[in-house]
Amino acid sequence: LTENSGKYEPISLLKYSKTPTDKIYNFRFAEDEGDVHILYTFYSSKQGTKSFKTYYSSAPIGQLNDLSFTSVNFKDASEGYDIENPTYLNMNIEDNVPTILFSARGAISNKKDAGNIYRASLKNDNWEASRISTTKDFSIYPVKADDKTVFWLKAVSVQDYQVHAASQDPAIMKSSQSI
């Protein structure tokens, strides 16, 4: 929306002619020092094959009609592999850098995979991700509490979940060891 003398006018950010099986969803927005960062997911199903793609763009507030979205590909910074099918994406700005929290299947050891929580930052046009969850089972819905703490849900069963967290805050780390 743009404001002009108290009236708001919509601005088209994305134009796409979709098929009946296409969906565009999971829009996330973050603003930092006059720039708007936008993230969305595109879902398509063709001949029984499901495809999920995430796209990102940013622009100054006054230039949102000139957005050019690029495909987001997450790479595990420590292991070097591409992380596929990210879900439950959340976007924040940390130290003037767009950061995405998400859940995806990935290694927790040489022999075991799990649904992990990752934090990815944009560095030189690449999304470098690192695993931040500490659980060994399926984890979803990451939420940033502050610059050093993230919460998520860990699936205990199909119906039951537990709230978990990871933090770099020394006070939180110390108090968690006394539980």
Note down, in words, how this protein is organized.
- The chain is mostly beta strands.
- Helix content is 4%, strand content 59%.
- It contains 1 helix and 15 strands; from the N terminus they run βββββββββββββββα.
- A 6-stranded mixed β-sheet has the order 8-7-12-11-10-9, with no helix packed on it. Strands 3-4-5-6 form a 4-stranded antiparallel β-sheet, with no helix packed on it.
- The termini are far apart.
- The relative contact order is 0.11.
Summary tags:
single chain; mainly beta; six-stranded mixed beta sheet; 4% helix; 59% strand
How are the secondary structure elements laid out?
Layout (H helix, E strand, L loop, with lengths): L1 E3 L2 E3 L13 E10 L2 E12 L2 E12 L9 E2 L2 E3 L5 E2 L3 E8 L2 E11 L5 E11 L2 E6 L7 E8 L2 E7 L5 E7 L2 H7 L3
